[in-house]
UniProtKB/TrEMBL annotation:
Keywords for the protein's UniProt record, in alphabetical order: Membrane, Transmembrane, Transmembrane helix
Keyword Aminoacyl-tRNA synthetase: no
Transmembrane segments: 54-72, 78-104, 125-144, 156-176, 188-210, 230-255, 276-294
Superkingdom, taxonomy of origin: Eukaryota
Residue intervals of the Amino acid transporter transmembrane domain: 47-290
Membrane-related topology note: Multi-pass membrane protein
A molecular function GO annotation: L-amino acid transmembrane transporter activity
Coarse class of the protein's main subcellular location: membrane
Entry keyword Amino-acid biosynthesis: no
InterPro entries from the UniProt entry: AA_transpt_TM
Family assignment from sequence similarity: Belongs to the amino acid/polyamine transporter 2 family.
Compartment list: Membrane
Taxonomic source organism: Penicillium frequentans
Designated name of the protein: Amino acid transporter transmembrane domain-containing protein
Length: 298
């Protein structure tokens, strides 16, 4: 007698556009079958609640890049800058909910590679391309964080060790904290990560507020260039390249969807993902929109 999982495997054969005719009841039956099968394993993946998923999303989204938004506003001005932030947030919500709905119709999707495979009609080329882009994204992110960690240790310690040695130290730290097999355990580290970033952003605002003047700037030293000013719109002479960099600097913060299929696949109730997404949207909107204008003097 064929099991529910056997039926799912049959539908994954080439030529079958899974998700085109799946009704909600069938989808939930499939999810329950996948969760039940997962709980029979020694290492259980589908165990996260939506609350822990929200914490995990916050840990992924609350990052150092928030502190670079002030520069974007200094280039775009606060009117185009705030509009860009709001539009990015709206597009983030629409695309994220659309992705979740598709995964609910295809609950066997476990990562962005599977997502690309099914979206493009079960194309193996799409699967390989998605895998390559995921790998490239992770490599670049790892390199960025290793460099950032090395710079932080260099600045805080004042030690004679070179940046290369600090990079090795940060790499070892990264390997150690990456050992947990499930996102359920990683979510606890996300709590600590989010708390640290929250403190960093708060200190960032306090220090910027109590200083009488900035130490230096992109276009000259204070007070040589006069009082610090903010503008509603880009100043005359602002180049297209600078505006595009500022826009990309903002939109980059709103593109964590590459990890959503993985997060959803490790939830015990994937249908609750919109709750976690709503928490993330509120946190992101506050942190991405409020601190940068405050620091820019708007």
């Amino acid at each position: 007698m064929a099991t529910r999982m056997d039926e799912i495997d049959e539908k994954k054969q080439g030529g079958y556009a899974l998700g085109t005719e799946v009704d909600p009841s069938t989808s939930f039956d499939t999810i329950n079958a996948l969760v039940a099968e997962d709980h029979e394993h020694d290492i259980k993946l589908r165990t996260m609640s939506w609350q822990k998923t929200a914490v995990l999303l916050a840990g992924d989204q609350v990052c150092l890049a928030i502190m670079a938004q002030s520069w974007s506003l200094s280039v775009l001005g606060w009117v185009p800058g705030i509009i860009t932030m709001v539009l990015s947030g709206i597009l983030f919500w629409i695309t994220s909910i659309t992705m979740h709905k598709y995964i609910m119709k295809n609950p066997q999707i476990k990562d962005i590679c599977d997502f690309g495979y099914y979206v493009f009609g079960q194309s193996k080329a799409a699967y390989v391309f998605s895998a390559f882009m995921l790998l490239a994204n992770n490599i670049l992110l790892i390199g960025f964080h290793v460099l950032t960690g090395a710079k932080v240790l260099n600045t805080l310690s004042g030690h004679t060790l070179c940046t290369a040695v600090f990079s090795v130290i940060v790499t070892i730290m990264g390997v150690i904290v990456s050992t947990p097999r499930t996102l359920h355990h990683v979510s606890f580290m996300s709590m600590f990560s989010s708390a640290c970033m929250g403190i960093a952003i708060l200190l960032f605002l306090i220090f910027a507020g109590i200083e009488t003047a900035p130490l230096y700037g992109y276009y000259g030293d204070y007070p040589t260039d006069g009082p610090v000013k903010t503008y509603a719109f880009p100043l005359p002479g602002t180049t297209f390249v600078n505006c595009m960099n500022a826009v990309l600097n903002i939109t980059f913060l709103w593109v964590p969807q590459i990890l959503f299929p993985t997060f959803i696949s490790e939830m015990e109730r994937p249908q609750d993902f919109p709750k976690a997404l709503a928490v993330l949207a509120v946190i992101s909107a506050i942190l991405f929109i409020v601190p940068p204008p405050s620091d820019s003097g708007i």
